[in-house]
Design brief:
Largest sheet: 6 strands, mixed
Structural class: alpha+beta
Radius of gyration: 20 Å
CATH architecture: 4-Layer Sandwich
CATH class: Alpha Beta
CATH topology: Deoxyribonuclease I, Chain A
Strand order of the largest sheet: 5-6-2-1-20-19
CATH superfamily: Endonuclease/exonuclease/phosphatase
Number of helices: 6
Low-confidence stretches: none
Number of strands: 20
Distance between the termini: 10 Å
Strand content: 25-35%
Shape: globular
Helix content: 10-25%
Number of domains: 1
């Protein structure tokens, strides 16, 4: 039997630039021990910013390289999302998959299965095309038992209102409640659309391999009964079909003790935004899950300026793989 640990962690704007947060050295001092504690074989990261590496503007993950230096993760295979144009990492909020095991295929989806939504804004009477902020990252990993594991790394749209041209006084102040409400609606559509694109990819994986091993990881920016998570789970109670039961994804956080079941603390309330979903075939090998939220600060009450912490807790799922 072989142990496999899959983890996900939103690093919250990991960068080298002082204008975007505390010094990188301070962040490394806090984040590196957290990464080592995860002891992950496969690690999904969100909010990894890119830094200019050439005079022509191409970007590299300099901050991530510094964070991983001297750790086992530095030697892992690396899959990185690409920004607009597909030439390299984006300026901000890239997703990354690190794997101790061989990566045999990799790709990303960004409106490949779900087209942008055309929408006429009511508050300004204008037609817009709503595009997702980030792609979905996918890697296929070769397991020691000869099977292939499909890992999806998601960072869904945050539940913050999307900007509408001319409808804001400043970055955080809206001109009207109507415009804010419509911006919030647009953000919800983007979040649900990203979840749909991920679900359609999962469907393709099941079409090719009915007992596919699939792990959907990341920052869902939604609780378990909200639309994005329900779209991804495709529960039998939602589809009404026993014939589709084998395609349901399993919410592994349900196996955690209730008092440990939160990855964000917001205004005194603990919620799960960061999670790992598993296909039934993979969930059958699940041993236990962990949420490393012991030192998690409240993002409202404890949001000290220039804090080196992430306000997200890492999540780990451990599996015991049968021999091939």
């Amino acid at each position: 039997m072989t142990r496999l640990r899959i983890a996900t962690f939103n690093l919250e704007n990991l960068d080298t630039r002082l204008g975007r947060g505390p010094p990188l050295s301070a962040r490394i001092a806090v984040l590196r021990p957290q990464l080592l504690k995860l002891d992950a074989d496969i690690l999904c990261l969100q909010e990894v910013n890119g830094q200019k590496s050439t005079p022509h503007g191409s970007r590299a993950l300099v901050a991530l390289d510094a964070l991983l230096a001297g750790t086992p993760y530095a030697a892992f295979a690396r899959v990185v999302s690409k920004g607009p144009g597909g030439k390299g990492p984006a300026d901000i909020q890239n997703t990354v998959i690190l794997s101790r095991l061989p990566v045999v295929a990799r790709d990303q989806l960004w409106h490949d299965l779900v087209p942008p939504l055309s929408y006429r804004i009511a508050t300004v009477d204008a037609e817009i095309e709503t595009r997702f902020d980030r792609p979905i990252l996918h890697a296929a990993v070769a397991l020691p038992n000869g099977r292939r594991l499909h890992v999806l790394n998601l960072h869904l749209k945050a539940p913050l209102a999307s900007a509408i041209s001319g409808q804001k006084e400043s970055a955080f102040v809206w001109k009207s409640t109507a415009a804010w409400a419509e911006g919030f609606f647009i953000a919800a559509c983007k979040r649900a659309g990203q979840a749909l694109e991920a679900r359609l990819l999962v469907e393709r994986l099941f079409d090719a391999e009915p007992d596919a091993l699939v792990a959907v990881c990341g920052d869902f920016n939604a609780e378990s009964r909200e639309t994005p998570v329900r779209v991804l789970l495709a529960g039998e109670e939602d589809t009404g079909s026993r014939a589709l039961a084998s395609r349901v994804l399993v919410l592994l956080e349900c196996r955690l003790p209730e008092q440990r079941r939160y990855t964000i603390r917001h205004a005194g309330r603990g919620v799960v935004f960061d999670r790992i979903l598993a296909s039934r075939a993979l969930a059958a090998w699940h041993k236990h899950s962990e949420v490393h939220n012991d030192t998690l600060a409240d993002e409202v009450f404890d949001a000290a300026p220039m804090s080196p912490n992430s306000f997200h807790a890492p999540v780990v799922a451990e599996f015991t793989l049968p021999e091939g």
